[in-house]
Amino acid sequence: MKQTISARPFPRDFIWGAATAAFQVEGYPEADGAGPSNWLRFCRQKGVVANDDCPDISPGQYRLYQEDVRLMREIGIKAYRFSLSWSRIFPEGRGRVNQAGVDYYNRLIDTLLANGITPWITLFHWDLPQALEDLGGWRSPEIPRYLGDFATFAGKAFGDRCSHFFTVNEIANFTKWAFSTQVEAPGIICDRKTVNQSIYNGCLGHGYALAALRAVRGDLQIGLAHDPRACIPALPTPEGIEAARKAFRLENSEMLTLMMEGKYTPEYLAKEGENAPKTTEAELRLIGGKVDFLGLNLYAPLYYVAVDETSPLGFRLTEVRQKHPLMARPESYVDADILYYLPKFCHDLWGTDIVISENGCAATDTLERNGEIQDTDRIMYLKGALSRLQAACQDGIPVKGYFVWSMLDNFEWCSGYGYRYGIVYVNHRTLERIPKWSASYYSECIRRNSVL
Ligand code: BGP
Fold first, then answer.
1. How far apart are CA 79 and CA 109, in angstroms?
2. Pairwise CA distance, residues 254 & 266, whole Å
3. Could you tell me which of 34, 203, 217, 266 has the fewest CB atoms within 10 Å of its CB?
4. Residue nearest to ligand 1 atom 10, measured at CA
5. Fold of domain 15-228+258-298+330-448
6. The whole model's pTM is what?
7. Is residue 170 annotated as a catalytic residue, yes or no?
8. Domain residue spans of the chain
C-alpha cells in the first residue's frame, strides 16, 4: 500500500473504534448466574427470529474476549464500544448483584486497557432483564428510574477505569418498534398513545442514566447512541440543504430533538394531539440534560427536497429510486453523504460534539478456498463513508471519533446470524475468527489517520 499521508488527515486525536452489543456478541446469555432478558425470551419463541436462531453461543465473546481484544489490537483499533448485559449483573433487573457478571466486565475492561484500547460502555442496548419486562418493560414509568439505578451501579463499578459512557442505544428499537411491530422484543402491539409514552420513557431512561452517571463522577464523558431519521438533501443546493436541515430537526421531534432541546416541538404536539405523551417539567429537564457528545448510528439516507412556500413546512421526502445502490440487506441504501450532513446538522442545530457510534453494512461475505474474505463491497462502503467524514472534519465539524459496526460478525437480532456486519468473520459453528479484507483496509486508514 502507498505510504503517502493525505495533506489533511483526520484530527490528531481522532478516535478509531469498533462497536458491538452484549446480546449480539457475548453468547452464553445465562451463564454463571445471569438472569434471562426479554430478547432471550423473544428469541426462544418459535418463528420469531430467522431460522429460529438464538445467540446461545456464537460469537461467544463472553469466553473469547481475550482473542477479540488481541484482534482489535492487531487491527489498530483505539476504542471499543460494547454494552453491558443488565441481566448478567442484576439477574432480576435490580436488587441482588451477580458478582460473576461484574467480574466478566472487569476482565474485559482490564484486558482492553492492558492492550491500549479505550473502553466506551453502552449501558443499555435493548436487552432488558425479563423481570423488568414482566413489570411492563418500557411501557412502565418505573423502568427509566431503574435504568438510572443501573447507571449508578455501573458508574461506581467501572468508572474508575472507564470515562466514556453511552446511556442508551437507539431508543426507537426498544420502544416504538418494540410495541408497534413484532420484530423487536417483546413484540407486543400497543395503541399509539402507549407507544408514544414508551418512547418518552426511553428518553427519560436516557435522562436518568445521564444524571446518575454525572453524580458518580463529574468528569465522565457521557452521550447517547441514536439512529436519527437520516435526512439529507436530494439536491445539495443552499435551499436543498436548508430544507434537509429543517426536516432533520422536525422529523426527529419525538426523540432526538426532544433530548437535545428538552421539549417537544409544537409540530409534534399538534400531530399527536391526544396521543402525545404525559410529561412533567422535572422529567423534561432530565431528558434535556447536557450531553458531552452525541453518538450517531448512521445507516441509510432519507432524501428531502425544498418545496415552495405553499407547503407549510418547506420540505418534502422523496422516494428512494428503485435501483438505488444497496448493500446486502434490504433497504440498506448507500449514500456516504449521511456521514457529512448528519454531523453538520447536529452541530449547526445544537452545537454538540459528535461521535459516529455506528456505521457499517452487511455484505455478501464468503469464505474463499484460500481462507480469505474478500469483502470489496464493504471496503467500497467504508471508503465512501470515511471520505465524507474526513471532509466533515476538514470543514470544522467537531466529529471526535468513528466506531465501525461491527467489530465481528454477530447475532443480528430478528435476522439471526443471517447478515454479517463484521470486519472480522466468525464461523458460527467453530467460533473461529478471520479478519476480512475490510479489517486490513480499516487498519491502514487508522495507521495513516486518513482515508485510503
Ligand atoms: C443498529 C443496532 C445494532 C445493529 C445494527 C445493524 O440498529 O444498534 O445493534 O444491529 O443496527 O444495522 P441495521 O440497522 O441495518 O440492522
1. 11
2. 11
3. 266
4. 412
5. TIM Barrel (3.20.20)
6. 0.97
7. yes
8. 15-228+258-298+330-448
